[in-house]
TrEMBL record:
Keyword annotations: Aminotransferase, Pyridoxal phosphate, Transferase
InterPro entries (UniProt xref): Aminotrans_3, Aminotrans_3_PPA_site, Dat, Ectoine_EctB, PyrdxlP-dep_Trfase, PyrdxlP-dep_Trfase_major, PyrdxlP-dep_Trfase_small
GO-annotated molecular function: diaminobutyrate-2-oxoglutarate transaminase activity
Coiled coil (UniProt feature): none
The enzyme's E.C. designation: 2.6.1.76
One Pfam family it belongs to: Aminotran_3
Name of this chain's protein: Diaminobutyrate--2-oxoglutarate transaminase
Gene: ectB
Lineage of producing organism: Bacteria, Pseudomonadati, Myxococcota, Myxococcia, Myxococcales
Signal peptide coordinates: none
Species: Hyalangium rubrum
PROSITE patterns, per database record: AA_TRANSFER_CLASS_3
Length: 419
């Protein structure tokens, strides 16, 4: 007798995605462990696609949220001034901006990363009076119309249903086809008056392409790109939505290059607790908005401010940043020792606590899919990414213990060996 379809199959749209990769009904979570309704536990090497850098239900944040709720603290206030926002801005200034010599103003956008990207593009065009944007092959910036226009995936762009114009795509300096001299290509486009391409309003990039397959731009390349943008009056937008908040080892992914983007988008783990929140950081002189010119009903969820303020406490502890580096070395060592002995040519890429194992030369998508499914069956949640989803994406919470990391790596390596 066939089983009756679940309520999810009956009523939830076909657009659902992760529920197909993780076929379980989840009930609770703590730290780096998730439990389904049967009580089975799973190690989380997914982190809510980068939203849970501090783990699930982090104790200090949870207590602050409960206390705030019990005090009848205001929950929804649009962009009105509140004590919760005041506390967040003060701590963000003191813990993140000032120690790094960054003099950004902060815009609270709609609650998802794609809205921060939309705001960045819109502001860049307003300030420069230009319309074009340069973006990079392999980049992912969101699923609303403006952010889709600077996302390179054909299927993503096609889903818009209308032409996505005003973007010139540049090959990323590293990718599945090897290295590319994108700086020389950019110079030719910008310096040749007959290149057929106008100087753009902005250039948007991820310093580490996360969904693109964990491709890492070098610090030297980023410095030269910053110089090139300055020479031509192009605003540099760093999309740090997934690579920021410590994922690459420092709070911002661009810190390793010693550069300062003109605009920075943050979302995902900025709230600390998995609550919706998105920011646009901008140079002070770029804040040329008129009041209400980029608005949204949920551009200031107070619970997100409360959790985010508490999350920034991690960055007041030097040992926290050091622990990320230590865990990076652990992951690099474990995979570096194990992968050469496994079947096929496996390509390892990683920085901080974001690693990718590329199966493109070792069975491609089908094998990567089998590995992901086997790992899930054995209690490890992780996703695939990259051009054809050939990359196994390792992205645990930054607070994952070394013992948990070792256990998750053992499950993954065993899955690669037997899939």
């Amino acid at each position: 007798m066939s089983q009756a379809p679940s309520v999810f199959e009956q009523f939830e749209s076909n657009v659902r995605s992760y529920s197909r990769s993780f076929p379980a009904i989840f009930q609770r979570a703590r730290g780096s462990v998730i439990y389904d309704t049967s009580g089975k536990e799973y190690l989380d090497f997914f982190s809510g696609a980068g939203t849970l850098n501090y783990g699930h239900n982090e104790e200090r944040m949870k207590r602050r949220l409960i206390s705030y709720l019990e005090s009848d603290g205001i929950i929804h206030a649009l962009d009105a001034s509140t004590t919760a926002k005041q506390e967040f801005l003060t701590r963000f200034r003191d813990v993140v901006l000032q120690p790094r010599g960054l003099d950004y103003k902060v815009q609270f956008c709609g609650p998802t990363g794609t809205n921060a990207v939309e705001a960045a593009l819109k502001l860049a065009r307003k300030v420069t009076k230009r319309t074009g944007v340069f973006a990079f092959s392999g980049g992912y910036h969101g699923m609303s119309l403006g952010s889709m226009s600077v996302t390179s995936g054909r299927s993503v762009r096609a889903s818009a249903g209308v032409p996505t114009a005003h973007t010139t795509f540049i090959p990323y300096p590293v990718g599945p086809r090897g290295n590319f001299d994108s700086l020389s290509y950019l110079r030719n486009l910008l310096e040749d008056s007959h290149s057929g391409v106008d100087v753009p309003a902005a250039m948007i990039l991820e310093t580490v392409q996360m969904d693109g397959g964990i491709y890492i731009a070098s610090a030297e390349w980023l410095k030269e790109l910053r110089t090139l943008c300055d020479q031509h009056g192009i605003l540099l937008i760093c999309d740090d939505i997934q690579a920021g908040c410590g994922r690459t080892g420092r709070f911002f992914s661009f810190e390793r290059a010693g550069i300062q983007p003109d605009l920075v988008t943050l979302s995902k783990s900025i709230s600390g607790y998995g609550l919706p929140m998105a920011l646009l950081l901008m140079r002070r002189d770029l804040d040329q908005w008129k009041p209400g010119e980029h608005t949204g009903t949920f551009r200031g969820l107070q619970l997100s401010f409360i959790a985010a303020t508490e999350a920034l406490g991690y960055w007041q502890e030097p040992a926290f940043e050091k622990s990320i580096k230590n865990k990076e070395q652990l992951l690099r060592g474990v995979f570096g020792d194990a992968l050469p002995g496994l079947e096929g040519e496996l390509d390892l890429r990683g920085i901080g606590m974001a690693f990718g194992i590329d199966m493109i030369k070792a069975g491609g998508y089908e094998r990567a899919r089998r590995i992901q499914q086997r790992a899930f069956q054995h209690g490890l949640i992780m996703e695939q990414c990259g051009r054809e989803d050939t990359v196994l994406k390792v992205m645990p919470p930054l607070t994952t213990t070394e013992e948990q990391l070792m256990k998750g790596c053992e499950i993954l390596i065993d899955s690669i060996r037997h899939a």
